[in-house]
């Protein structure tokens, strides 16, 4: 009997889907289920750009890449740095001397996030690990002199959080990339000698649960060898069964090909997209990387974050919320406070978020703004404004005599009465606790 089972298992694994290096095949791969269940993730933009900490993580490009350069950045450098100072000279000041991966992982855990995505390499090309293909432009040879990717990965996984890596395909100033670009991307020197060896190495070394690809838009997927890489990733890599990817694999791929869709940064659809998607957004509304002149008024407050999360999840999306740590390795306390607030809200209301599905209707605005999610036989009506009265009307749910309503965080069933004989209900609310997230969840059972 046992040997029959072993044989069957062996046969199944042998005949399991093999993906060929084309989008039709790659796009047919089911998304590993952990991702849809996770719903909430933390994005971390950390690199040499955190040292000037001015403008955004696009500092180098605005200062010396774009034509003409942005005077704001040129003047910042003239005022604050000696003449002739170059961007790579910022690297030794990226010290990470207070970086404690366990403290970061504790903060992420307390936020309720189920996955974390760290920039392994942003468009500046600096790797937060000792990449042999990024000589003297990585966090082990210079700056922190530590394996930031490896250290954070270990601490995050230790807390049962999935660990993902952001990787930029293009590098603004890499000489081989500039050469290929000049050749109209008809040559692939950068891809063959830098990008791919590094990317394969990164996957084998760190076994990421998620690869958040970016910087794809200047060249087609055929230049990046994206489909060849992904077929290896899905068929043979050490993460073939669990790895999740996004959709930035070449000009025109976003919102069309890959794993889940990001479409654009801060994508905010007005209905449920047909394909699994993720909204990435940043607590600092002006930057993903650390800014030294960040002001409170430029940040999302907690109720804004929670409303954004609820809307995203109602539309079937995952929510990836970004923080930019300092070059010293600290997560600014104001971000930490937001993350802990998010976690406190999820502790009570997470039942309506994790592993939920979009309901047949996403929202209604009656006496309060209501967003719906569902799971199993329950429907969740999340109120993102405090109802003006001690009752709230929901017009969409179709009740039965057996319908029950509770407020998450409060075990007592709430009294309700029908609005019409065949639809809607008025729920009598208890005193709503004044919680920092300012959103309350009604759980409805036995409704349609
Ligand atoms: C996390 O680390 C602690 C202390 O080193 C260890 O005891 C524990 O087993 C680890 N947990 C996981 C899930 O790896
Ligand atoms: C890149 O793609 C070409 C085919 O388009 C293939 O011959 C080559 O082996 C690939 N290289 C890598 C490193 O994936
Ligand atoms: C309710 O209000 C939200 C936010 O203003 C809006 O996006 C949505 O379309 C409205 N829904 C309905 C059903 O009117």
Can you offer a commentary on this structure?
This protein is 29% helix and 18% strand. It has 448 residues and is α/β, with parallel strands linked by helices. It folds into two domains: 22-352, TIM Barrel; 363-445, Golgi alpha-mannosidase II (Immunoglobulin-like), CATH 2.60.40.1180. The strands form three sheets. The protein has a seven-stranded parallel β-sheet. A hairpin with a 3-residue loop joins strand 8 (363-365) and strand 9 (369-375). The model is unreliable at 4-12 (pLDDT under 50). One 2-acetamido-2-deoxy-beta-D-glucopyranose binds next to loops. Alpha-L-fucosidase is responsible for hydrolyzing the alpha-1,6-linked fucose joined to the reducing-end N-acetylglucosamine of the carbohydrate moieties of glycoproteins.
């Amino acid at each position: 009997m046992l040997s029959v089972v072993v044989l069957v298992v062996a046969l199944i694994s042998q005949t399991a889907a093999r993906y060929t290096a084309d989008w039709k095949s790659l796009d047919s791969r089911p998304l590993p289920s952990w991702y849809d269940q996770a719903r909430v993730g933390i994005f971390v933009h950390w690199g040499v750009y955190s040292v000037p900490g001015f403008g955004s993580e696009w500092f180098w490009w605005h200062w010396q890449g774009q034509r003409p350069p942005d005077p704001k950045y040129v003047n910042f450098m003239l005022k604050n740095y000696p003449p002739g100072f170059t961007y790579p000279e910022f690297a030794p000041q990226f010290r990470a001397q207070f970086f404690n991966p366990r403290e970061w992982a504790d903060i992420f855990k307390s936020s309720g996030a189920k996955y974390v995505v760290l920039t392994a390499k942003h468009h500046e090309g600096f790797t937060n690990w000792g990449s042999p293909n990024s000589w003297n432009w990585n966090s082990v040879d210079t700056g922190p002199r530590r394996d930031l990717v490896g250290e954070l990965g270990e601490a995050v996984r230790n807390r049962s959080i999935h660990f993902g890596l952001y990787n930029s395909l293009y590098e603004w100033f890499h000489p081989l990339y500039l050469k290929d670009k000049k050749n109209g991307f008809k040559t692939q020197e950068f891809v063959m000698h830098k990008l791919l060896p590094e990317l394969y190495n990164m996957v084998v070394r760190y076994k990421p649960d998620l690869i958040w690809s970016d910087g794809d838009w200047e060249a087609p997927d055929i230049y990046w060898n994206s489909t060849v890489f992904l077929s290896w990733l899905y068929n043979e890599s050490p993460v073939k069964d669990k790895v999740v990817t996004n959709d930035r694999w070449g000009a025109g791929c976003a919102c069309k090909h890959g794993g889940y869709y990001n479409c654009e940064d801060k994508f905010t659809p007005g209905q449920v997209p047909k394909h699994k998607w993720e909204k990435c957004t940043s607590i600092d509304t002006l930057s993903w990387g650390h800014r030294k002149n960040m002001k409170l008024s430029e940040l999302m407050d907690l109720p804004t974050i929670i409303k954004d999360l609820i809307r995203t999840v109602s539309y079937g999306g995952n929510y990836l919320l970004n923080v930019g740590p300092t070059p010293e390795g600290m997560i600014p306390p104001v971000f930490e406070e937001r993350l802990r607030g998010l976690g406190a809200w999820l502790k009570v209301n997470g039942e309506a978020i994790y592993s939920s599905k979009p309901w047949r209707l996403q929202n209604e605005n009656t006496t309060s703004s209501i967003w719906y999610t569902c799971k199993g036989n329950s429907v969740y009506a999340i109120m993102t404004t405090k109802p003006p009265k001690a009752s709230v009307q929901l017009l969409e749910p179709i009740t039965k005599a057996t319908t029950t309503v509770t407020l998450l965080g409060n075990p007592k069933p709430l009294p309700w009465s029908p609005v019409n004989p065949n639809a809607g209900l008025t729920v009598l609310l208890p005193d709503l606790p004044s919680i920092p997230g300012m959103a309350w969840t009604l759980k409805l059972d036995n409704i349609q």
